[in-house]
Amino acid sequence: MSQALIVIDVQNDFCPSGALGVPEGDQIVQPINDLMTDFGAVILTQDWHPKGHSSFASTHADKAPFDTLDMIYGMQVLWPDHCIQGSEGAQFHPALNTERADMIVRKGFNPAIDSYSAFFENDHATPTGLEGYLRTRGITDLTLVGLATDFCVNFSAVDAANLGFHVRVREDLCRAIDLEGSLAAAQEGMRAAGVILE
Ligand code: VGL
Ligand code: ZN
Predict the structure, then answer these.
(1) What is the Cβ-side half-sphere exposure of residue 77, based on CA atoms within 13 angstroms?
(2) Residue 137: which of 8, 41, 7 has the closest Cα?
(3) Residue 170: how many CA atoms within 13 Å on its side-chain side?
(4) What is the pLDDT of residue 186?
(5) What are the tens digits of pLDDT across the range 13-30?
(6) What separation in Å is there between the alpha carbon of 94 and the centre of ligand 2?
(7) Closest residue (by CA) to atom 4 of ligand 1?
(8) Ligand 2 mean position to 46 CA, how many Å?
(9) 127: which strand partners?
């Protein structure tokens, strides 16, 4: 058994003063740094969108943030512009220990498809390459922490479990956006996929 810590999207735009601020998002940073010392492998993900990304409400006429849009790959929540490639908001929280990262996975760079999951874009078909990276390193067990519990952590955890990894989510080291019950739905979906919530 070989374990990795996967730190999802601990970036300025998901922290309270950011463009898509998650309440208390900054409070998990130091405990995540502390947890890194327990793992032989640490992987960070970074939401990384081009300007005018299809997941931004501003890209679509007559749409406001948090509206939904039926895309070819399914329902997409439309977000405020966030994590634009190279911007301050896309940088990791300044207190996050990025030196411990073996690998940084960027996602959401395809203008036409969002990517909540660290493993597949939202079409559930286009891989990011993380699965191959983990398997070729012999990693079987994953602990996920980060932002946001109900979107990128949730999609990453469910995909990882479906790929056959043993997955646990440290809920105390995650924070949620919680749009219309999305946190409860995410918890149910993760449990149903065999993810251990602790
Ligand atoms: C995320 C919404 C849009 C996340 C990323 O990291 O959970 N949520 N992009
Ligand atoms: Zn995003």
Answers:
(1) 15
(2) 41
(3) 16
(4) 98
(5) 999 999 999 999 999 999
(6) 19
(7) 152
(8) 9
(9) 120
